[in-house]
């Protein structure tokens, strides 16, 4: 069963850290999951953490400052991507042994920035992640091809609370057959996001490490992801020379999707092949 721990961090109080210990034969690496915009560590609890704990990995999921049960929400509009990187660094100081960072969406950008600034991890897995060159190209393309979706996503970054019955919110994150209770839960638990962190994720100044300076990498995306399209996922994999997988009929909120298992199995296979 997962438990929540509090980790002190500079200038922001406490971090929420959810921990699920490995069961069975323990892997030589632990996993630290880093969430994307508007959510928190809780998005990993339903499927991913139990799955990987059962596969032998010590699992940790952090709520970045201002998210989930972490302190700092009163200053959410002040935080930058660099602040989120400090949160990851603080948690890594508390985890013994080698760690693979697993970042989703904006969390993928945080993971890449951490690797660029610190580099002390065994590997990184980028799931539906902001690409190394940032979001600017994807955002421009969305604004042209689907302006309603683009305006809905922009509103979320500016502090609007998502509505579970907003068609744009559903299309942005979920596949058509996602159960309504999942969508309602995400909408209910989602919080504000720092517009500065989203601006930092646009790609200038650059936040990604040079390919030759990156650890072993795994890249995963969904074929119907409307925020990080398949071609961006594949180019991210090419940039890092990484194992890259695209799961059919998988949308952006891949850890909560009806087809979450194929993606988790792909990540598990890469972890075991790379580190066992």
Verbal overview:
The chain is an alpha/beta fold and 276 residues long. It has one domain: Alpha/Beta hydrolase fold, catalytic domain (Rossmann fold, 3-Layer(aba) Sandwich). The protein has an eight-stranded mixed sheet, with helices on both faces. Helix 4 crosses helix 5 and helix 5 packs across helix 6. The radius of gyration is 17 Å and the shape is globular. The two termini are 25 Å apart.
Quick structural gist:
It is built from 10 helices and 8 strands. With 276 residues, it is an alpha/beta fold. The chain has a single domain (3-275), classed as Rossmann fold (3-Layer(aba) Sandwich).
What's the structural blueprint in terms of helices and strands?
Blueprint: E1 3-9, E2 13-20, E3 30-34, H1 48-54, E4 59-63, H2 81-92, E5 99-104, H3 106-117, E6 123-127, H4 136-145, H5 147-157, H6 167-173, H7 180-189, H8 195-200, E7 217-222, H9 230-240, E8 243-247, H10 260-275
Parallel strand pairs: 3-4, 3-5, 5-6, 6-7, 7-8
Antiparallel strand pairs: 1-2, 2-4
Helix pairs in contact: 2-3, 4-5, 5-6
From the structure provided, what is the oligomeric state, counting identical versus distinct chains? Answer: single chain
State the CATH topology.
Rossmann fold
Number of domains: 1
Radius of gyration: 17 Å
Let me know the average pLDDT: 92
Query: What's the name of the CATH homologous superfamily?
Result: Alpha/Beta hydrolase fold, catalytic domain
Distance between the first and last residues' Cα: 25 Å
Which H/E pattern describes the elements?
EEEHEHEHEHHHHHEHEH
- Spatial sequence of strands, sheet with the most strands: 1-2-4-3-5-6-7-8
> Helices and strands: which structural class?
alpha/beta
Strand content: 15-25%
Regions with pLDDT < 50 over 5+ consecutive residues? 1-13
Could you name the CATH class? Alpha Beta
Architecture (CATH level 2) name: 3-Layer(aba) Sandwich
